[in-house]
Structure prediction request, 125 residues.
Amino acid sequence: MKRHILFLFAALLAVATITFASTACSSKTTTASEEDTPAIAMTVHVKDGEFDTRDIDIEAGGSVMWINDDVASHDLQFLAPNKLYSGVIKPGKAWIHTFAAAGTYDYYCDFHNTMKGVVVVRPAP
Ligand SMILES: [Cu+2]
Prediction:
């Protein structure tokens, strides 16, 4: 049984890696006018119903990647400064967002209201 769970976890990790790779690829090829594929300034892992990093601090233009390493689906709901929704992030999937404007972006998971975090985006130097 334990072996089975380990195998499942490995499979989920593989899916997350593939998802990330394809996302990075598509964002690079879709818009030629944009700069290169956004560098991931911060990676947050979602595990055991928690974000492993709650306080994220990046510069404007930076991207954050949330990887769902959990067995449950999660999402990210931002209400301010503008509404932003990640969509459902299933186990093994990841979501990347680039924060173009400086500001304080609080978010929470719609499914589990105790799951909260904040992205502080500082003006680019
Ligand atoms: Cu959740």
User: Anything to note?
Assistant: Residues 5-34 have pLDDT under 50 and may be disordered. The chain has one helix and nine strands.
